[in-house]
Amino acid sequence: MFKIIFVNLMLAVLMTVQGCGVNSVEPEQAAKPLVSLVQQARALSSRQSCEAEGGAWQKLGKLQREACVLSASDAGKSCSNKSDCEVTCITMERGKTGSEVVGQCYHSTNLFGCRTYVSSGVAQPTLCID
Questions:
Q1: 20 belongs to a structural domain
Q2: Is 54 contained in some domain?
Q3: The domain containing residue 77 runs over which residues?
Q4: What is the model's pTM?
Q5: Other beta carbons within 10 Å of 41
Q6: Tens digit of each residue's pLDDT (9 = 90 or more) over 114-126
Q7: Domains of the chain: total
Q8: Which helix H or strand E contains 7, and what residues bound it?
Q9: Domain presence at residue 113
Q10: Is there a domain that residue 8 lies in?
């Protein structure tokens, strides 16, 4: 009887200790920020805080509202999905909707204007944000 209780107790201790171990996270996953670069830019609500983060305080869109624009460190890198980039994945090839394309990571958090986004390696319809 004592032997069964001891074995069960040891199993419970081992399972608890195993849960406290280091998670096996890929280095690339561990390096990704919890907040996207676009979310970071939107959270910077003053010229001072924006410039302190290396951003540019600009008037954006049709309404010319002031906002922070941050540059992406992976601008121009090849991509096939938004998740491959700090901001988003676009293609410069217009009129290729539905075609397989190699995209490139967008250069900043300023998403105003017309762009053809890439999802799963396929050009999406051009979207214009004003």
A1: no
A2: yes
A3: 33-125
A4: 0.70
A5: 22
A6: 999 999 999 999 9
A7: 1
A8: helix 2-19
A9: yes
A10: no
